[in-house]
Amino acid sequence: MARFFGDYLSSLTQENEQVNIALSGGSTPETIFDMLSQEYRETVNWDKIRFFWGDERCVPPGDPESNFNMTHQHLFSLLPVSENNIFRIKGELPPQEALKDYREVIDNELPKNGGLPLFDVVLLGMGDDGHTASVFPHEIDLWDSSELCEIGTHPTSGQKRVTLTGKVINNAREIVFLVTGKNKAEKVDEILNEKGDYQKYPAARVNRDKSLWLLDQEAVVS
Ligand code: 6PG
Fold first, then answer.
1. Which CATH number does the domain housing residue 78 bear?
2. 44 lies in a domain?
3. The ligand 1 atom nearest the CA atom of 181
4. Which of 57, 125, 123 is closest to 90 using CA atoms?
5. Which helix (H) or strand (E) holds 88?
6. Residues in Cβ contact with 7 at an 8 Å cutoff, skipping those fewer than 6 apart
7. Is the CB of 127 under 6 A from ligand 1?
8. What is the pLDDT of residues 51-69, one digit of tens each?
9. Is residue 43 part of a domain?
10. Considering only Cβ atoms within 10 Å of each terminal Cβ, which end of the chain, N or C, has fewer?
11. What domain count does the chain have?
């Protein structure tokens, strides 16, 4: 999985002058980022990539919970990535201010397609409850918001997060899901095989025609 994604990124940066990518957070990308920093330093044109996020916890950038902090530790601190190419969500601000700031950033910093910000790649994970980015099942209506991003609330911790909405995610040229672990297998099966009430999961709302699901063995129902 990790090498597939590394090769994918390498080809993107060879074929394009600029690659705008929205990263996912959580724990799954950590191992991918570690591998990229160790094995793809030379093959990926890192200075062509501009880094955004699909979501960010409303915490300061140095907080262990911060997706930026995780990415800095496992990727940016190990590779020649210019700060000018990092557009982090300002989790240290009050949520509504962070939301307003990021709405302006993605509106101003990205090309448009159909009047909407255009990412070349949106990297997504999936929670074991079927959430993606920070659109959770209990507030799945956020997915269809008319806004470019919204404030999501973690169902158990109550943690506020800034998240892209469905119309921006599905506007991307390509979407890559990175999903690992046995605890995800049932939801992956329900969504990819369109079983039962699978549409209640935000991850199921992602445009399948543009999505590449990278799964480890455990995440596949045996
Ligand atoms: C986040 C992520 C979130 C994540 C899933 C899966 O901010 O937590 O963007 O959508 O991708 O929760 O997380 P794990 O990779 O930790 O299972």
1. 3.40.50.1360
2. no
3. 17
4. 57
5. none
6. none
7. yes
8. 999 999 999 999 999 999 9
9. no
10. C
11. 1
* pLDDT tens digits, 116-132: 999 999 999 999 999 99
What is the amino acid identity at position 82? Answer: S
Report the pLDDT value the prediction gives residue 150, as an integer from 0 to 100: 98
- Rounded to two decimals, the pTM is 0.96
Asked if residue 106 has its Cβ within 6 Å of ligand 1, the reply is: no
Tell whether ligand 1 has an atom less than 6 A from the beta carbon of residue 163.
no
Paired tokens of 35? 């591998």
Residue 10 alpha carbon to ligand 1 centre in Å: 24
Q: Is the pLDDT of residue 222 over 80?
A: no
d(CA 76, CA 84): 12
Once rounded to an integer, what is the mean pLDDT over residues 82-109? 98
Expressed as residue numbers, the domain containing 148 is 19-35+57-219
Query: Is there an atom of ligand 1 within 6 Å of 133 CB?
Result: yes
List pLDDT tens digits, range 131-142: 999 999 999 999
Pocket test for ligand 1, best of 28, 66, 218 (most atoms within 8 A of CB): 28
From 1, 51, 55, the mutation candidate for ligand 1 (largest count of ligand atoms within 8 A of CB) is 55
Residue 48 lies in a domain: no
Residue 200's pLDDT band (cuts 50, 70, 90):
very high
